[in-house]
Design a protein that fits this description.
Length: about 110
């Protein structure tokens, strides 16, 4: 896959994450129910949403970094050792900055 196609893929994923994060924020802003049992369940749900939001934000940060690497011409080269990242690895993890060898040692 060429860098233009990877950039389109990453940009689409980025947009989907932004939509998901907005939905998560909206749900977290909902007031808690007055009933104690319902409020406890809602708080547990909020904890799950917060964890999902953190995971989405981390992925968004990795995607933004990958997009910067595409723009600078560094995309596809390992940030650890400088070797080429295999296309199969980039197919699975398009936002990865590391080759499999460096990722295993990290």
């Amino acid at each position: 896959m060429d860098p233009v196609a990877r950039k389109a893929l990453l940009t689409a994923r980025r947009q989907a994450l932004l939509v998901d994060l907005a939905n998560i924020r909206d749900q977290l802003d909902d007031p808690l129910p007055q009933d104690w049992d319902d409020a406890a369940i809602e708080q547990e749900d909020d904890e799950v949403l917060q964890a999902l939001g953190h995971a989405h934000q981390a992925e968004l940060n990795r995607i933004d970094a990958a997009l910067r690497r595409i723009d600078s011409g560094d995309y596809g080269f390992c940030a650890g050792c400088g070797d080429v990242i295999l296309p199969a690895r980039l197919d699975l993890l398009p936002d990865t900055p590391l080759c499999a060898h460096c990722a295993a040692g990290a």
